[in-house]
Amino acid sequence: MAGRSAAPGRSVTSRALGILDAFGADAPRLSLSQIAERSGTPLTTAHRLLGELTGWGALIRRPDGRYEIGRKLWDLGLLAPVQLELRQVAAPFLLDLHTTIRDTVHLAVREGLSALYVDRVSGRESVPVVSQVGSRLPLHATGVGKVLLAAAPDDVVDQVLAALRPVTRHTVTDPVLLARELTEIRRRRYARTCQEMSLGAASLAVPVQVERVNGPLAVAALGIVVPPHRRDLARLVPAMEMAARGIGRELARSQEFH
Question: Which site in 74, 92, 103, 226 is 20 to 30 Å from 47, CA atoms measured?
Answer without folding.
Answer: 74
